[in-house]
Amino acid sequence: MEESTSRTTKKKLVAVVGGGLVGSLNACFFAKRGFDVEVFEIREDIRKAKVVRGRSINLALSHRGRQALKHVGIEEKIVSQGIPMQARMIHSLNGKQYPIPYGRKGQVSLSVNNIATFSYYAICRLTEYSTMRLSYCCVFRPDGSKVQIKADLIVGCDGAFSATRKQFLRRSRFNYSQTYIPHGYMELTMPPVNGEFAMKPNYLHIWPRNTFMMIALPNLDRTFTCTLFMPFEDFEKITTGDEVIKFFQKYFPDTIPLIGVDALKRDYFRLPAQAMVSVKCSPYHIDDKCVLMGDAAHAVVPFYGQGMNAGFEDCIVFDEMMEQFNEDFSAVLPEYSRVRVPDDHAIADLAMYNYIEMRAHVNSKWFLFRKHVDNLLHFLMPKTIIPLYTMVTFTRTRYHEAVQRWHWQNKVRSFLKIYASL
Amino acid sequence: MEESTSRTTKKKLVAVVGGGLVGSLNACFFAKRGFDVEVFEIREDIRKAKVVRGRSINLALSHRGRQALKHVGIEEKIVSQGIPMQARMIHSLNGKQYPIPYGRKGQVSLSVNNIATFSYYAICRLTEYSTMRLSYCCVFRPDGSKVQIKADLIVGCDGAFSATRKQFLRRSRFNYSQTYIPHGYMELTMPPVNGEFAMKPNYLHIWPRNTFMMIALPNLDRTFTCTLFMPFEDFEKITTGDEVIKFFQKYFPDTIPLIGVDALKRDYFRLPAQAMVSVKCSPYHIDDKCVLMGDAAHAVVPFYGQGMNAGFEDCIVFDEMMEQFNEDFSAVLPEYSRVRVPDDHAIADLAMYNYIEMRAHVNSKWFLFRKHVDNLLHFLMPKTIIPLYTMVTFTRTRYHEAVQRWHWQNKVRSFLKIYASL
User: Fold this and answer.
1) pLDDT digits (tens, 9 = 90+) for A343-362
2) Which of A377, B105, B206, B216 can pair with A385 through a Cys bridge, CB separation 3.0 to 4.6 Å?
3) What residue ranges do the domains of chain B occupy?
4) A161 at the B interface (CB within 8 A)?
5) Can you say how many angstroms the Cα of residue B243 is from the centroid of all Cα atoms in its chain?
6) Do residue A177 and residue B174 have CB atoms under 8 angstroms apart?
7) What are residue B307's phi and psi, to 5 degrees?
8) What pLDDT is stored for residue A132 in this prediction?
């Protein structure tokens, strides 16, 4: 009761550090609950900025992310700007293409690129740099001067290299890991052909080549963003335009006419390959003062298409607990860490697992056979056997429960295999 | 050739950050090779400081550590100040004691407490705080002023919370993890009885109690340092002197008269339980400029008695590579990371494994049976079957090879077990 009284007399202030995807959405969630919200972002307002090509992996929006957007009333707006992908399209070395469906019909992911179109409930103050102390935000203005803002709650949504998280690292008993994978990524653009998409648009195109691979996602402007994933040492072996073409002729011959010889020779050297990091930590909170969400809490490698979705789901989970504990931060924050850490660790592990699977197994007959068996079992026993990918992408089954269930289903499948062979 | 010429004209400067065990020993190694060495240490000179009780786990010096000390000619000096421990002495709940030998006769670890008696070859400059940039050490004087010292190599030996390592964390593609275990530790002193050790001195005493345990190591002054390892939440449950006594009566009744009721009641509350962290990272170097060793590179939990030994062995391994590559830092540093990372990760994992084994299995008949089988097999096939503990503690077998060999031996043992049961 005291809580609500104080809220009617003076609104509590939530400082959201980071105005990216998760920070912006979180601002909407807190504003909807009636908090004063301030968003602190070091970069220029992305709505005014030019698109920076080559530095943003395309994003796949699926069920969890959509549920979060729906909650603050902007699902339809975002969905209308995405392109549905109904299946993966595998490109073999010999130029053949064959689709692998994600799940049942109607279960689609959306390719979204620039979705920073949230109606900000909050005033977004652009600042040069922001860091946090326990009970206030310390903001550096562009002129170098410092402002301290007393916030009731600090929400760190400042990404994989979070400045907020650095404060956690100074405290004892904070568990933390950052793991870089040996692969880097590079983005290349495939322009439209005669004003139309150069390939079938409603697919996530994949060129699996064992130790490396390329994927392509469609954009609204009818381009594709191609992303090449390859060990850094292989990127570094290619030093001239001719070597780029030779490499593409050997491994991705069908893409050369579509991307264009000149563009390939030029764009390959525009930026060095970018690193990918997997970050895990726990707990996500300090006292009743500060909480981490999104990549700041759990950067994942991009191979399950769940980074943004997991970050958006963080917002719902937190909001559900705010409801449950009557907005009492001292109860919500520990519960959020307790419940959310195992789920975020599970999706980080799954993304790492898929890093191997996408490169190697998508090609193999065994993998395809297993997918078919899974889909068949799901058709026969829709409530008992649900493919892992379906649980992760098209439901809100808790990530760690999806993994547990998957392990159990693998045992069932092994049993059926033995039974069938008798 | 150029190298040696430049060394004769002007000696290269090595800045060792941290004047603890590994930093001091490393200074000796570099000085022996003819480098100018400066050691930077934030704390007071430990040789002049009073012993800080309750903050230092006793150390077990074994083969790897001794080899390193031997290399710089101070093995005998240190060994003369240690107390040999020929076996573990297990204390049951019912007050019975039984020894479990470490290995063959003559294979002993030494209990050492304050071995900061290295003859410093280097000048040890005490400074308030030191951090490092890539090619120089930046030192903060007690008055707050800053000195920059241009060093040819910076060696970060500044412990589990290394300031040097923070510079590594700022760079891309540095893998890092810190994991706190749910247990804390607390040190208690067991004084001599009538001028003699209160228990048999030449043993590592262990009171295994499943979720928690106590150990005691002998000191030269005929005291024992008892270390209680217990989950933080259990430490926090005990809030009064009477509760301490009740707890000891239930779990460590034989130690109450030896530590003393009053001392127990007082010392339990002198300091809060201390946290234990396991740190892994890679690589250990930046270019040809900086390298991490000891706890700065690989803090381990203290349950294999290898923390100091692994750190000392780092110094030998580095020195061996200095010999191999003619002191060319650009060759030595990457090779050091390549070779040493898997070994240090292996000992970190083993220490974590022993964290579970020491508490739970030391008690069990199965564990004792397995030890006997191992020792019997080692007796029958001394070159084929070597117990893991022996390889780790009494040889310089590379840690990761010891682990591989152990896995293989476990398979052999399983096979023998099946064979024996036929």
Assistant:
1) 999 999 999 988 877 666 65
2) A377
3) 2-51+61-82+114-178+278-359, 364-421
4) no
5) 32
6) no
7) -55, -55
8) 58
Pairs across A and B, CB distance < 8 A: 30
| Two structure tokens written together for A226 | 């191609």
Q: Which residues of A touch B165 (CB under 8 A)?
A: none
Domain A2-82+111-178+277-359 classification at class level: alpha beta
Q: Are A334 and A325 in contact (CB under 8 A)?
A: no
Q: Does A174 touch chain B (CB under 8 A)?
A: yes
Structure-token pair, residue B319: 């020195």
Contact by Cβ (8 Å): B128, B23: no
How many beta carbons lie within 10 A of that of residue B299, not counting itself? 25
Q: What is the rounded distance in angstroms from the CA atom of residue B271 to the CA atom of residue A107?
A: 58
- Does the beta carbon of B421 lie under 8 angstroms from any beta carbon of chain A? no
Q: What is the pLDDT of residues B316-331, one digit of tens each?
A: 999 999 999 999 999 9
**Contact status of B173 with chain A (Cβ, < 8 Å):** yes
Q: Is the ipTM of this complex over 0.90?
A: no
- For tokens 């060095």, name the residue: A272
> What angle (nearest 5°) sits at the alpha carbon of residue B260, between those of residues B256 and B263?
120
Indicate the residue of A175, A176, A180 with minimum beta-carbon distance to B173: A180
Three-state secondary structure along A176-232? EEEEEEEEEEEEEEECCECCECCCCCCEEEEEEECCEEEEEEECCCCCEEEEEEEEH
